[in-house]
Amino acid sequence: MNNNALTTPASxxxxxxxxxxxxxxxxxxxxxxxxxxxWANHDLDRLAVAFLILxxxxxxxxxxxxxxxxxxxxxxxxxxxxxxxxxxxxxRHIEEERDHDRWLLDDLEAAxxxxxxVLQMVPSPTVASLVGAQYYWIHHHHPVALLGYIRxxxxxxxxxxxxxxxxxxxxxxxxxxxxxxLHGELDPLHLREFDEMxxxxxxxxxxxxxxxxSATHTAHFLARCLDQLERExxxxxxxxx
Length: 241
Hints:
about 240 residues; mainly alpha; Heme Oxygenase, Chain A; globular
């Protein structure tokens, strides 16, 4: 008897993107709770402006972070196939994200917040910790870490209904939400491209674990940022005085 005829081909295991999704569903739950509390706050007029300022503080770091990751990945690409894939992805995604920080400043001006006022605000230590960890991992371990940061920030795009609700509740002009709305439209496409790229990378277990650690760190510190905006709204009061 041919024993081979009785064997069943092994089914493929979960992909990198599926494993990362399973991790973030568990470890990033504090962020989802923080968002629910934040958008249910009765003081949404001020908090919506504060959120756009926070969004600018994060988005302005996106392209510089990716440029650092691309440079480090390029330096290692000859001997590291993961770095080769990262360098190619960063080159494309940098152009997709370029100037979004400037667009947010335009949006805030539509909400009567001067761009120089926003640029002169010192980002909180929580924002600095959220972003700064990525520089440490890129330089002192592996640029693959930045993929967790990107996946988390682009993994929860706002719906059109959510943006419309904010506009109605805050009475801010439609132009104040241009970039936020655009991310809701573009991020699902970027997310599909990201997952395809991640699944094509020959990641080791430790590298995939680092991507998950980075996403978890990003989620936890973003949740802290939202909680701080609710507890410490004074800077937005000053801006709108």
